[in-house]
Amino acid sequence: MEQAVRRPARRSRAAVLAVVAAVTLGVAGCDAVGGGSPAPSGTAAEKGRPSPKPTPVWDTSPESVAAVGDSITRGFDACAVLTDCPEVSWATGGSEEVDSLAVRLLGRAGAAERSWNHSATGARMADLPGQMARAVRRSPELVAVMAGANDACRETTSAMTSVDDFRADFQEAMRTLREALPKAQVYVASVPNLMRLWSQGRTNPLGKQVWKLGICPSMLGDADALDAAATLRRETVQDRVEDYNEVLEEVCAKDRRCRYDGGAVYEYRFGTDELSRWDWFHPSVEGQAELAGIAYRTVTAKQP
């Protein structure tokens, strides 16, 4: 006899629904986030995780400061006539009346230990590479630069540093820094508005007598002369200062770790209180404090 074929037992409707439900829950569990199961790559949950923040190129709290530049950074005529006074320097001085850039960044004790002033009265941009070479020996994290006034303050307008030479000297100073300290930061102050300093100081008879000793003759010579030749001479000096500031801005902009003050020093309206009472040209103690404030705001500004 032919054996009967056995058919599988028919599952009940309830059993089938249970299996479907279990499979559905199992699939959902694979896609859900929770427990110990990691989210699949590319899911919304994974994309929602905060990515690590990149390290900022500019550090708003450097731990050491060196300064290079001219008589302004030496505090010339701020404390006594025709004398340097580095203790009131806007960049590195320890005076409580000024609260220099170094003091504001490092504290008074820190500034005394970890800030250095390599500026020199009478220095021009051509002197900056040598000053920078001395500055890098200390491995500063920030170098503060203020130079250019003496390049415009010459015996005659024809003796002023050319714009091309000014650019070449500043670029050389930056190369000197970068070859030794590729990650050091640079703050660059604009050249002051020499025309405004003349217009402020010429109201003081004593100041004009000191000017005759040879302070910025291209701008301050014959201080009371208002004829066409004198006006043209002063305007020529002023135009050169503005050209210098364009160079400072352009060269600095090519370096990711350089900040130009945006013309803040040039645009600052120094009044008689901010000018030396001995020469009515260089910053007084109050003027040095203003320069320190401009520098500190530029250095500590958050990156855009």
Account of the protein in words:
The chain is α/β, with parallel strands linked by helices and 304 residues long. The protein contains twelve helices and five strands. The chain has helices at 13-31, 44-47, 101-114, 128-135, 149-152, 163-180, 194-201, 205-211, 217-220, 228-253, 264-267, 285-300, and strands at residues 65-69, 115-117, 142-146, 185-188, 258-260. Strands 2-1-3-4-5 form a five-stranded parallel beta sheet, sandwiched between helices. Helix 3 links the parallel strand 1 and strand 2. The longest helix has 26 residues, at 228-253. It starts with 12 loop residues before the first helix and ends with a helix. Residues 1-46 have low confidence and may be disordered.
Q: What is this structure's SSE topology?
A:
Elements: H1 13-31, H2 44-47, E1 65-69, H3 101-114, E2 115-117, H4 128-135, E3 142-146, H5 149-152, H6 163-180, E4 185-188, H7 194-201, H8 205-211, H9 217-220, H10 228-253, E5 258-260, H11 264-267, H12 285-300
Parallel strand pairs: 1-2, 1-3, 3-4, 4-5
Helix pairs in contact: 4-6, 6-10
Helix-strand sequence: HHEHEHEHHEHHHHEHH
Number of helices: 12
**How would you write the strand order of the largest sheet?**
2-1-3-4-5
Helix content: 40-55%
* Low-pLDDT stretches: 1-46
Head-to-tail CA distance between termini: 94 Å
Structural class: alpha/beta
Key attributes of the depicted protein:
12 helices; alpha/beta; disordered N terminus; 304 residues
Summarize the structure.
This protein is an alpha/beta fold. It has twelve helices and five strands.
